[in-house]
Amino acid sequence: MLDRITASLPSLAPAEQRVGRLVLADARAFARLPVRELAERAQVSKPTVVRFCRSMGYDGLADFKLKLAGSVSEGVPFIHRSVDADDKTGDVLVKVVDNAVAAFLQYRNAASTVAIERAAEAITGTWKAGKRIEFYGAGNSGFVAQDAQHKFFRLGVTSIATSDGHIQVMSATLLGPGDCAVIISNSGRTRDLMDAADIARKNGATTIAITASGSPLAAACAIHLAADHPEGYDRYSPMVSRLLHLLVIDVLATCVALRIGPSLQPVLQQMKDNLRAKRYT
User: Fold this and answer.
1) Are 24 and 5 in contact, with CB atoms under 8 Å apart?
2) What does the alpha-carbon distance between residue 34 and residue 53 come to, in Å, rounded to a whole number?
3) Residue 234 pLDDT > 80, yes or no?
4) Which end of the chain is more exposed for a tag (fewer CB within 10 A), N or C?
5) 114-146, pLDDT tens digit by residue?
6) Which domains does the chain have, with CATH numbers?
7) Residue 241: predicted pLDDT
8) What does the alpha-carbon distance between residue 199 and residue 187 come to, in Å, rounded to a whole number?
9) CA 154 to CA 199: how far, in whole Å?
10) Pairing state of beta strands 223-226 and 180-184?
11) For the chain, how many helices (H) and strands (E)?
12) How far apart are CA 254 and CA 247, in angstroms?
């Protein structure tokens, strides 16, 4: 991203060039400062700062700063260094947390809103039709499947979550047209999950994969929500894929909640009242 800004400087107006040089001088500061201070530092007007961002191909300052923060975070070598035996607790904290944050920002910058919309529409349509919604996962992804069931249940959307391969294959056999199976896997190569996806698809159910791009599972499902984060133990990231999948589920559940609309409000309020009464009695 910074290389592209450097290459574009000669073609920009002089005032926009000053904004570009400000980005290159301190990208981290640019990503966190308000537009007023950015304009003062570059000695330009606030609209000029916004024009510069749009000339770089972004919707505006907010979009540009978000992408810039992700680009800078992904490029920090410290994040990708292994955890050493002599690391202090503070070093470990920074390495592990920054690696997770970098993965989230990378997902934010690369996620397909079209795929998310298709998945949200499919789940909402299945719920409205009173059909089956099922979440499948194995290992860490099995915990994500259970979390998904919990989140959607809180929306009044009943579903099934299974992490046992045999049950997944049997359950997929019972699916049919109008039903929906969400299959979660980091590698996208787990045999049981592949079998369940194949069976559900052949039975006419909508299949949604939350997995890595280019994996067999991604190719086998009708809708693919790409969650790309290879588990590299030299970066100490064995749990980042699970966190990333949980993030995707959060986005998906929120999109479905918005599609359900105002009718969801009394259900949520009643649920909160019931839980509160149970908790304090």
Assistant:
1) yes
2) 14
3) no
4) C
5) 999 999 999 999 999 999 999 999 988 999 999
6) 1-72 (1.10.10.10), 107-277 (3.40.50.10490)
7) 81
8) 19
9) 28
10) unpaired
11) 14, 5
12) 11
